[in-house]
Amino acid sequence: AKAGGRNGACFFDPSMQDAADRRAAFEAAMRDGLAQGQFRLFCQPQFDRVGGLVGAEVLIRWQRGREEVVGPDHFIGFAEESGLILPLGAYVLEESCRALARWQGEPALQHIKLGVNVSVHQMRDPAFPALVDGILDDTGAPPERLCLELTESVFADDPHEITRRMHELRARGVCFSLDDFGTGYSSLAYLKYFPLTELKIDRSFVRDVGTDPESAPIVEAIIALARTLGLKIVAEGVEHEAQRHFLIHGGCSSMQGFLLGRPQPIGDFENRYRAAGIG
Ligand code: C2E
Ligand code: CA
Ligand code: CA
Ligand code: CA
Question: Model ipTM?
Answer without folding.
Answer: 0.97
